[in-house]
Amino acid sequence: METVIILILVALDQWTKGLAERLIGETGRVSVIPHFFELRLTYNKGAAWSFLSDHSWGIVFLSIVSIFVIVSLLHVLKHTTAKRARFVLMLIISGSVGNLIDRLRVGAVADFLSFTFGDYAFPTFNVADSLITVGTVLLVLFIIFDRSFLNAFLDNNLFGRRRKNIEGNKSERSNDQSEHDAQNVPDASGSRDTTVD
Fold first, then answer.
1. Is 54 a catalytic residue?
2. Which of 27, 34, 125, 185 lies 20 to 30 Å (CA to CA) from residue 84?
């Protein structure tokens, strides 16, 4: 089910970018709400806020980082059963995959959602950016305000399994020690219980 949701979100991101490329074009713009929201297609060769866009190796570096992040998050998603954690991971993975496809396809990320707040023009973004941002914000909020979320997240991923294995080994050693101590407890006469052949 998670795979289907991720594919749908990635498809939505790619569809909106393709729509923007066909209807707006790189030099055009469409005013949706005057002086506040417009559709304007730009290509960002860097990360958020054009980070590393001025470096020729930036796109390669960001693509490698994206692949590493996506694989790592998919691994965590596979070992996580907490519903909210899975939801957050699906959002972040979907957005990361959407932007990675752009980098591999055209060597840059297509952005087209542009907001202006007075004299401040917010950096143009896309659906994938929104998924990553919402997922990250929810993750931070859940961690800060809900301790059970972080516990559930840790208890159900790879690190949690390792911790449970360690605790299980400690418990087994404790049980073995208890049985050993019970065998060496003196009886009422003060002598230890021994078996005579």
1. no
2. 125
Short-list 54, 56, 69, CA closest to 99: 69
Q: Which of 13, 54, 111, 119 is catalytic?
A: 111
Helix, strand, coil % over all residues of the chain, rounded to 5: 65, 15, 25
Digit-coded pLDDT (tens) for 93-135: 999 999 999 988 888 889 999 999 988 888 889 999 999 999 9
In a domain, 169, yes or no: no
Q: Is residue 133 part of a domain?
A: yes
Is residue 197 flagged as an active site residue?
no
Give the model confidence (pLDDT) of 25-60 as tens digits.
776 788 889 889 999 998 887 554 444 445 454 567
- DSSP structure string for 101-135: HHHHHHSSEEEEEEEEETTEEPPPB-HHHHHHHHH
pTM, whole model, 2 decimals? 0.72
Q: Is residue 177 part of a domain?
A: no
Total count of domains within the chain: 1
In sequence order, what are the residues at sequence separation of 6 or more whose Cβ sits closer than 8 angstroms to the Cβ of residue 139?
88, 92
